[in-house]
């Protein structure tokens, strides 16, 4: 009995600490909400100008003093010519038609619940508001997938570009599996690095059950539902075979919808071959038709610079305290998983 009493006291202390931390987090979150009057802002960066600036610095670093003087004079002459051309274009009524088309660059680093979709929808809306004929969008995607409804919404946000006939290129430098590939397959062209991870077209779900632990400790649990399948599997209740069967049925239905969606986006893909839940490296994915080209986002942007002006579009939100804590926790878990799998 003494051991049980000590164990009960220990649990009570743990519960008190958890409740105290929860209350503190709620208070801090509410205070943070009051202090943040705006939700976020749209950041626009000309990547082609940034790259040109770096390129010029590298060139200068290799020149002698006399070479630098000559080079700077030539550069100033070139700038003056461009300014004159721009002035003439500004006087013309059709100056907009003479500008380079724009390659809009978006970034999506997906978490388990795909909460980044709230920023993605803002970025896509901003692009759609100004996009013109000839413009394209590059999405630099990195995600191992996650919740179906979150990544389903993210994929549909990308479909908004497809519906407006705006070419979408998805670049996968590291990973786009499961829900990540659901997003990628919307693109008109997919590029990936040779050792990036692609695919994992499948659905997985798991749930622990503590019912036997509760029974051993003579703890009763009451669960009341209205609707036969309102709850199929539970954490603490006693699961039935009928409930398990319905859970598997729902899982299979989600899987079929996933396969159908990928096949609609990439009709030439042999969907039955690649939809077994496996993933492949970039070079293997190219052979199977999951992607269209082996390359990286950096090479693509550099190659596009002569024909397009490159504009990075990023909607950043003011993070609440709880969000920063969750991001740090997620980052730690991701690092642990990377350590265990490398």
From TrEMBL:
Main location (coarse class): membrane
Gene Ontology CC annotations of this record: plasma membrane
InterPro entries reported for this sequence: ClpP/crotonase-like_dom_sf (IPR029045), Peptidase_S49 (IPR002142), Peptidase_S49_N_proteobac (IPR013703), S49_SppA_C (IPR047272)
Coiled-coil regions listed in the entry: 68-98
Any GO MF annotation of the entry: serine-type endopeptidase activity
Pfam family, one: Peptidase_S49_N
SUPFAM superfamilies registered for this protein in UniProt: ClpP/crotonase (SSF52096)
Top-level EC class as recorded in UniProt: hydrolase
GO biological process terms on file: proteolysis
Keyword terms: Cell membrane, Coiled coil, Hydrolase, Membrane, Protease, Serine protease, Transmembrane, Transmembrane helix
Domain Peptidase S49: 161-307
The protein's name in its UniProt record: Probable protease SohB
Source organism of the structure: Candidatus Erwinia haradaeae
Lineage: Bacteria, Pseudomonadati, Pseudomonadota, Gammaproteobacteria, Enterobacterales
């Amino acid at each position: 009995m003494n051991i049980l009493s000590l164990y009960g006291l220990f649990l009570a202390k743990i519960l008190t600490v958890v409740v105290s931390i929860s209350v503190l987090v709620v208070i801090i979150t509410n205070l943070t909400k009051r202090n943040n009057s705006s939700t976020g802002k749209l950041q626009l960066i000309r990547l082609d100008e940034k790259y040109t600036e770096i390129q010029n610095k590298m060139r200068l670093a290799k020149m002698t003093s006399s070479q630098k003087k000559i080079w700077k004079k030539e550069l100033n002459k070139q700038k003056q010519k461009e300014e004159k051309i721009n002035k003439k274009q500004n006087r013309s009524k059709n100056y907009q038609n003479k500008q380079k088309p724009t390659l809009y660059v978006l970034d999506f680093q997906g978490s388990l619940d795909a909460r980044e979709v709230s920023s993605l929808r803002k970025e896509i809306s901003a692009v759609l508001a100004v996009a013109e004929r000839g413009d394209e969008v590059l999405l630099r995607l990195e995600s191992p997938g996650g919740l179906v409804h979150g990544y389903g919404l993210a994929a549909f946000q990308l479909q908004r570009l497809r519906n407006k006939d705006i070419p979408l290129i998805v670049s996968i430098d590291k990973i786009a599996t499961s829900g990540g590939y659901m997003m990628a397959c919307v693109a008109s062209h997919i590029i990936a690095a040779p050792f990036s991870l692609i695919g994992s077209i499948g659905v997985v779900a798991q749930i622990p059950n503590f019912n036997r632990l509760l029974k051993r400790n003579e703890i009763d649990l009451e669960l009341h539902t209205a609707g036969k399948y309102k709850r199929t599997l539970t954490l603490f209740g006693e699961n039935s075979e009928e409930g398990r069967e319905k859970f598997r049925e729902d899982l299979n239905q989600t899987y079929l919808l996933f396969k159908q969606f990928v096949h609609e986006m990439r009709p030439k893909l042999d969907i039955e071959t690649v939809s077994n839940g496996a993933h492949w490296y970039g070079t293997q994915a190219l052979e199977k038709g999951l992607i269209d080209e082996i390359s990286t986002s950096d090479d693509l942007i550099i190659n596009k610079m002569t024909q397009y002006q490159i504009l990075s579009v990023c909607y950043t939100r003011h993070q609440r305290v709880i969000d920063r804590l969750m991001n740090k926790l997620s980052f730690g878990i991701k690092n642990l998983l990377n350590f265990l799998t490398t």
